[in-house]
Structures are given as C-alpha cells and as structure tokens.
From TrEMBL:
Stretches forming Sequence repeats: 100-176
UniProt similarity note: Belongs to the TBP family.
The name this protein goes by in its record: TATA-box-binding protein
Annotated HAMAP family: TATA_bind_prot_arch
Function of the protein: General factor that plays a role in the activation of archaeal genes transcribed by RNA polymerase. Binds specifically to the TATA box promoter element which lies close to the position of transcription initiation.
Cited InterPro entries: TBP, TBP_dom_sf
Entry keyword annotation includes Transcription: yes
GO molecular function terms listed in the Swiss-Prot or TrEMBL record: DNA binding; DNA-binding transcription factor activity
Transcription recorded as keyword: yes
Organism from which the protein derives: candidate division MSBL1 archaeon SCGC-AAA261C02
Length: 177
C-alpha cells in the first residue's frame, strides 16, 4: 500500500469552563488585541500568536478554539489563555473540558486519480466536475468526508482525532487500489 502524506491544517475545539460566567467587557479590556462588539456578535474574538490559535469567548463560560495545527498547539494555546483569564481575576477552579469538534487534514496520495471511474464504482461519492473539481467521498467508519482531486491530493474533514485521519487515509487507499 502506497504511503499517504498527511498534514493537519486546522483543529476546531469546544472549551467549557465549569460554573464560570465571563464578564466580556472586562475580558475585552484585559486581553490584548481582543475584539468585542456586542451589537455585532455576542462574544469576544481573540487571537493567540504562539502557538497560533483563534478563540471565540462567550459569557456562558464556553469558547471555541480554531486554527491550531496540532493538538499540542491547541492545548498549549488553551492553557495560556486560561492562565491569562486567571491572572485577570477570573476564578477558574478546574481545568476546562476540551472536546475536538472537527479536524481538517490534507492528504497527498502520491499518485493521480481517475475521479470519473471512482464515482462510477462507489455509491458513497459525489462528483460534479462542472460544479466542483473534487470528488466527495463519504466514509462511515471513521465518519468523515474526504475530497479527492485528480492530482492525487485530498482533504479530510470531520475527523475527531489523528487516528480518524490516519484511518480515513488508509481506507481510501485500500478502497480505490
């Protein structure tokens, strides 16, 4: 079986602080570069530079974290932000609950694909080259969507872990060989 090059492009996580309500006005003034305009959006938009990640922070004590390229980076960005929140006076007793909502990865299968042939042979695909140049391949296990391109490149979306990404690459390779 040919080797598939895989690279995480983005991880989306939900972050929940138990029994916490954020004072968004106060946080927006404490977090450097934070954007808060309650007329436009009910949360704070905040970017962390190292490691790179973006956050949407809500009064409910929930946040979304996007843009990290590894779980290690995401966890580090969340920890740094949690420390900043604590030092600004937010009484955070326990570490937040973090859950991966989506992982997006790029694939290089190191070969070209005949997308029309794949579309004819597999029922869980969609291919309309006039609308979009990629073939949409829906997998059940893991439950992800993989976009395949003639060039042999692909994009995997909907994964919840690196294990899902690797299983998807393996399954696609096995299925179409």
């Amino acid at each position: 079986m040919a080797k598939v090059d895989t690279e995480i492009q983005n991880i989306v996580l939900s972050v929940t602080y138990k029994d916490i309500e954020f004072d968004l006005e106060k946080l927006a003034s404490v977090l450097e570069g934070a954007r808060y305009d309650p007329e436009v959006f009910p949360g704070i938009a905040y970017k962390s530079e190292t490691p790179r990640a973006s956050f949407l922070i809500f009064a409910s004590g929930k946040m979304n974290c996007v843009g990290a390229k590894s779980m290690k980076d995401a966890e580090q960005a969340i920890k740094k932000l949690t420390d900043k929140l604590r030092s600004s006076g937010v009484d955070i007793k326990e570490e937040p609950k973090v859950k991966v909502q989506n992982m997006v990865a790029s694939f290089d299968f190191n070969r070209e694909f005949d997308l029309e042939k794949i579309a004819r042979e597999f029922r869980n695909t969609e291919y309309e080259p006039e609308v979009f140049p990629g073939l949409v391949f829906r997998l059940d296990e893991p439950e992800v969507v993989v976009l395949l391109f003639v060039s042999g490149k692909g994009v995997c979306a909907g994964a919840k872990s690196m294990k899902d990404v690797k299983r998807a690459a393996k399954k696609i390779t096995k299925t179409i060989e």
